[in-house]
Amino acid sequence: MYKVDIVNKKLIALSATEFASLGLKERFDIQEWIEKTPSILGEDFLVIGKEVILPSGRRLDLLCIDKSSSLVIIELKRDDSGSSVEWQAIKYASYCSNYLSEEIYQIYATYKNITEYDAQQEIEEYIEDDIDNLNKSQRIILVSKEFNSEVISAVLWLRDFGINIQCTRLSPYVDSDNEIFINPETIIPLPEARDYIEKKEIKQRVSLAKRPDWTGYWFVNVGEGPHRTWKDNKKYGFIGAGQGKKYSSALKRLKVGDKIYAYMKGLGYVGFGEVIQPAKMIKDFFVNGKPLLDNELGAERPEENMESEELSEWVVSVNWIKTIESDEAKTFSGVFANQNIVCKLRQEQTLRFVQNEFGE
To answer: CATH number of the domain that 270 lies in?
Structure first.
């Protein structure tokens, strides 16, 4: 590895070294680096826990989530992986595979010192997948300066059987001023072959996976407050959410043709409709050729933050097939309800109930 001297147009060789000789520890140094800059491992992971205590009493170095909603178990070694690091990580992954979504929110809430509700919202905003798929799969990343040949052999064999496991080498170097440089290098899977390998593995997993037991209908929360009202939703044919990206981004999951059942928190279901236009900022939403905000709305401040893409109210145009007043909301003991703005309706009992009340 070389440092470039641009002025003198020459390369200055850096000296390979070991973390131990530099007095650096895996827990107090390397772990801290990766926690603060997880992209050194090749992706921008969301770190949700450090030194996570597992049911066995052992501590997992770092626990993350990737954009596809998989849990990522990161196991660190300093200068040499040893001969059984992969087995240790597999045990950790097996423990983590049993975590329910609520447990993951708890881990992240403790790590960030925030509420479980805020933890869930941050995770939902980070991932690019349905929140219902959280922890449907797990990944393992082994990190070390050098990897034992037995570990390399085991990792390649495990990948043949669909285990998503990665080896990333962190090599330290020093220059003449004793400044430290780190060269990250993923050696399994090789970057040049990564897309091909991952697509092949995904295809194999999809072919074996069962279809998700989604009813095909969406659950949508409709709220009452200064920025939106159910009466406005009914009268002008839309649903809305906003005053924060974590709220409005949920609406963008809805596509033209999607069927939705509208629910009012604490009351019950109040409507059934079909999406006819995707989400847009409220200032850009028209009703019968007229801006929605130019109409007589019951909401007090629907226009608040309307110029801010992140904070504005966003609306989805809906053709309401059947709606009722909020004081006539339909519910029953055990009805499906969710705090999310939008989610997939998966409970068959609730589906049969709302179809009987509103149609399908």
So the answer is: 3.10.590.10
**Mean pLDDT, residues 23-43:** 90
Structural domain for 136, as ranges: 2-208
User: Which residue, 153, 176, 208, sits at the end of a domain?
Assistant: 208
pLDDT tens-digit profile of 54-82? 877 888 999 999 999 999 999 998 888 77
Domain limit, last residue, from 172, 188, 208: 208
pLDDT in tens, 305-320: 999 999 999 999 999 9
* 298 and 230 together in one domain: yes
Same domain, 118 and 40: yes
User: What is the model's pTM?
Assistant: 0.57
What are the tokens at 324? 């009722």
Tokens of 79: 């200068």
Residue 286 tokens read as: 């028209």
**Count of structural domains, the chain:** 2
Residue with tokens 């295809």: 203
Residues in the chain: 360
